[in-house]
Amino acid sequence: MLILLVIMGYYFFRPRLPIRLNRAFLAILVIDICTEILEVASFRLNETWPEHATALLWVVNVLYFIFVYVRSYMFFVFTISVLDSKSLIWSRLRIFSPIVYVPCVLIALSTPWTHWLFRIEDGFHQGPLYWTIFACDCCYLTFATIGILRHLKELSAHEIISLLAIQVILKAGIVARFLLPNIIVMNTFCLMAIVVIFISFLNPDLYLSERGYVYNLPAFHALLAECWQRKKPCRVLGFTIQNYNEHREIFGGKQMDDALIGINKYLLETFPHLCSFYLRGGSYAMVGQNEPDLAELRKTLSERFTGSWKTGAGELRLGISFVEADMDLMNCPSDRLVNTLMISLDELSRVAEPDTSRSLMDSIDEINQKLEIRRCLEKSLDRDELEVFLQPLMDSKTGKRIAAEALVRLRDDNGNLIRPDLFISMAEQEGYIVRLGEQVLAKVCRFIRDHDMEALGVQWINVNLSPVQFMSRDVPSRFAEILKEYHVDEKMIHLEITEQSMIDFSLLRDQITGLHDNGFEFSLDDYGSGYSNLSRVRQYPFTNIKIDMEVVWNYCKEKDMLLPALVEGFKRMNLSITAEGIETEEMAGAMKDISCDYLQGYYFSQPVPMDEFVEQTMQMNKAC
Fold first, then answer.
1. Average pLDDT, the chain
2. Per DSSP, what are the bridge partners of residue 119?
3. Residue 9: Cβ within 10 Å count
């Protein structure tokens, strides 16, 4: 009991997070202390029964049995709370768990009349249902073990070991109690289990920031997970110190840590009704479950940060920006909410002006959209369902289709096309771009194999290469394998790389050389949108330069000598020229006048599915 009181005192002395896990632990402490008091009292009264009133014996013994049953249930509830905090829990465990201890409590309450548990006749005597105290313990330990084993993959090794250790200790206590019925031994095992719980899950320091006063990121996860699980309304205000990393480099880690300690102390003293969290990298979050006024809270913080923060070496002035999350966002899973908040705070720290405020709802919508795009992308890649559209390249002299550019397309579940810039950038960031590029090339090779290119008048097809694809050293060998599989001549495939790819000169040169040695020809796409010049272009085996549409549009709006001179320079280097973004007959004429070889744009055709491209081309050939 003394050890339990020490643990309880330490628990109340330190800050504690208002989550179910903490409440369950506190309930275990209180119930276990009451159980111990009642157990000692009942043993003493039963040993000296002639000295006491019979009614007192009945009351103390009934209360003792009720608390024994409730204690078994509360250890199980704690396990449920741990699983709930991980968004795990088998719902049937929660629904059917009271089915054991409720009947047991009713048996205890009826015992003065039924004598099922015990009887008081010339002292204490066990009744026919005395075994239920063991059955109740065993049932809840079995339930808890089933819940743990069902979620082994989701729990950490530390959590699994700790939870199973608690079950083993309590089971050992039941065995010891059964073998030694006249010795108060179960409380020792319960104390051991409580110590394991406190060290593994409930030590307040586990949830406190290293710099003191406020909670840390794991505590933030735990609180929001409970709010989401139990549908508790709450509001979150996140704020971040502008350019935190730069400040840390300039002023040093010690001075910034002193400032953070001052901020933490200010938050705790000024907003005791809110839970304040230090997340990472100068970012904070404040959570209130009683509908705090976020506008007023933001105003108070902004006013304080107009002043300075004292450090050991002087004072620092820091600017902050905000991210607000309202109660409606509790429909969003807590993990996604935390991740989105962290992303938003990181972005604001780098790019926003001080006192900028952003709604997390906008970021949530953006994240949800990205997750949906990623799901569609993964599904299409796994099922080889990406589509390839073709956009024709026109010979400026004859006006006929002479080639085409392959453009990848992705559809959502409703059959609507997703913007290419959204899913291609995601494919690059998430590591899918190599698979995507290989599938596109394979579909183009299959198209060339299955159609008479000579009859269509198509001499080659351009296939785009992402800059990220160049990071894969086996691109030349993989592309050669794909063409060999479909028996396609390398001259039928022209690879397009963007001007931005030319930043890493050595890597690009090696990759292009490898592909060129395998027979591939290259076009430089979007020329004029990057930083390359004629000197750098000459160092690569390009055969075609594609002028970026912005450059074409600007020239058509206001003609000058720059673009014609540029085209003339490329022509002297024996490079052919393609003008992109042609949308009118006048634009086509202007590009033809400055000697562009090929024209591409919506004026001739938008990108269309392969079958439609074949049909259009055949009709144009017949008309000619």
1. 85
2. 125
3. 10
**Tokens found for residue 438:** 């290989």
87 confidence band (pLDDT: 50, 70, 90): low
Q: How far apart are CA 442 and CA 450, in angstroms?
A: 12
3-state helix, strand, coil in the chain (%, to 5): 60, 15, 25
- For residue 249, pLDDT over 60 is answered with yes
Residue type at position 547: I
Residue 162 exposure: Cα atoms within 13 Å on the Cβ side: 18
Q: Which two tokens stand for residue 189?
A: 């095992």
Nearest residue to 10 via CA among 184, 134, 195: 195
C-alpha closest to that of 430 among 381, 474, 497: 381
User: Which residues are within 8 A (CB) of 221 and not within 5 positions of it... i.e. 6 or more apart?
Assistant: 334, 335, 338
Q: Which residues neighbour 309 within 8 Å (Cβ) at sequence distance 6 or greater?
A: 258, 259, 262, 263, 315, 316, 317, 318
Q: Which helix (H) or strand (E) holds 481?
A: helix 475-486
Rounded distance between C-alpha atoms, residue 591 and residue 543, angstroms: 19
The C-alpha atoms of residue 232 and residue 334 are separated, in whole angstroms, by 12
Q: Give the CATH number of domain 208-367.
A: 3.30.70.270
**308: helix, strand or coil:** strand
Angle between helices 54-85 and 20-47 (to 10 degrees): 160
Integer Cα distance of 370 and 583 in angstroms: 31
Give the Cβ contact number of residue 216 at 10 Å: 18
Question: What are the extents of the domains in the chain?
Answer: 2-204, 208-367, 384-623
Q: Cα 120 to the chain's mean position, in Å? A: 62
At the topology level of CATH, where does 384-623 sit? TIM Barrel (3.20.20)
User: No. of H helices and E strands in the chain?
Assistant: 24, 19
Q: Which residues contact 578 (CB under 8 A, 6 or more apart)?
A: 393, 523, 544, 545, 546, 547, 596, 597, 598, 599, 600
How much is the pLDDT for 21? 82
Nearest to 58 by CA among 71, 72, 46: 46
Buried b (16+ CB within 10 A) or exposed e, 236-246: bbbbbbbbbee
Query: Hey, CA dihedral for 385, 386, 387, 393, is it positive or negative?
Result: negative
The residues with which 308 forms a beta bridge, in sequence order, are 317
Residue 435: is it exposed, middle or buried by C-beta count within 10 angstroms (0-12/13-18/19+)? middle
Q: Which residue has the tokens 């502008």?
A: 242
Termini Cα distance of the chain: 100
The candidate with the shortest Cα–Cα distance to 67, out of 35, 107, 45, 98, is: 35
Return the top range by mean pLDDT from 308-317, 325-334, 535-544, 612-621.
612-621
8 Å CB contact between 542 and 575: yes
pTM over 0.70: no
Task: Give me 538's structure tokens.
Answer: 């000459």
